[in-house]
Write the structure tokens for this entry.
Amino acid sequence: MSTPSAIRIAAVLSAEHRGRLMAHAREVNFPEGARLFDEGGPAQTFWIVRSGTVTLEIPLPGRRTPAPVESLGPGELVGWSWLFPPYVWQLSAEAMTPVRAYEFDGATVRMLMDADPAFGSAIGHWVGRVLAVRLHQTRTRLLDLYSPRSGSGR
């Protein structure tokens, strides 16, 4: 369930664009078990993992606990819903280990993107690539859970 390295920040953004983004980072820590966000909540921030593991989850009908979709580690983006109206989380996220991360204010980054089209395009393409991978991972996980072959579906 890990993300291909081709969408990690260092592999996608130029040093100039990484530096511009990182100038707006705030270092944060999450203890093991902390909820970063829950599906349906307001998406106002996003993170880049420095160390530790964050698991993305999707709530499923008939299940008491959400299903894990993907595990994210160092250099990976946690959260994309901050970029797209109505700015509401589409998944949930939990720290599976102690996590150190860089936190960003979504509104600030959107303003930076609007002010500099090259920067905006780079960030938009990066988040789009991440979104495509997350959609594929979620689809694959749901097929695993609900496929008649899996025996764990309905």
In short: The helical segments are 9-12, 15-22, 106-115, 117-146. The beta strands are 26-30, 35-37, 45-51, 54-58, 67-72, 77-78, 92-95, 99-105. The chain is about 35% helix and 25% strand.
